[in-house]
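Appendix B. One record, verbatim.
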Amino acid sequence: MIKYIIKRLLVSLIVLFGVSVLIYTLVRMMPNDYIDNKYHEQLLIGTVSQEQIDAFKALYGLNDNSFFGIVKGYLNWLGNALRGDLGISFKYEKKVADVITTNMWTSFTIALIATILQFLIAIPLGISSATHQYSVRDYTVTVLTMIGISLPTYFLAAIVVKIFSVDLGWFPNSGLVDPSATYPDTIAGWFAELGDKIHHLVLPIFVSVILSIGGLMRYTRTNMLEVLNADYIRTARAKGLSERKVIYKHAFRNTLIPLVTILAGILPSLFGGMMITEQVFGINGIGRLAYTALQDGDIPFVMGYNMFLAVLTVIGTLLSDLMYSIVDPRVNLSK
């Protein structure tokens, strides 16, 4: 096991190097230039000269867009990154690492709650749909989940805000807390602020769950149907085991084997934020900050954020493989 993990980590370093080259090349090709946009008006009125702007770009290796200039800029970024320095964000004027670590926990909280609800809802629905194949329950669940899969995030979020926020007034439509509210530095104030945050997060979490349960439900249903047709399931039923024991003790365990592959995609989404959802609901999570930085051409932040996601993806893939050996004893990772 240890040998396998070390081997995978070494391969992951090569993968991350290739990803960093690709991302840096694409980032340097973005049409937006934050530095030029920021100092455009000052350049026109003469308070800043072009030479000063070029000198500022040179500090980040952004003054030369030729092939050799991009290579030089990448090597400069890579050297700093290996020392733990992801640079200073142009837009947020803070260290990229500090911006990520400060704001990712809001996204993590939202995504974690949504993920837990997603699994608690989608897996039972998938099992129920599979065990009642071609019934009214199966068709109803399938139609509802397909609607969730098909709806764009912006569209569903707009409908939810219109109904539950604008028309009914049950929930706020943006932010994490009421900007006009003040909370004393006491236990009662802490609970009041927590309640306000929960109230604000109901709609974003609801939208995230609705959009995500469809795929997991269909995946669970397909895997469960395949397992239920296996010979050992027919043997278990022939022995007189109850249907509940056949499904949840024998069939469901083998259904978990393909489901662990989903873990590879969960980790980046937990810490990487839900970019569109956070943008619609005005939540300053890491996803919304990355979206704004991408629009403005904030190269250091875009690079740091995408490499952060790449590392999480590599870790998630490794954890997924390790989970295989836990849910399926036949898998031997030591070979």
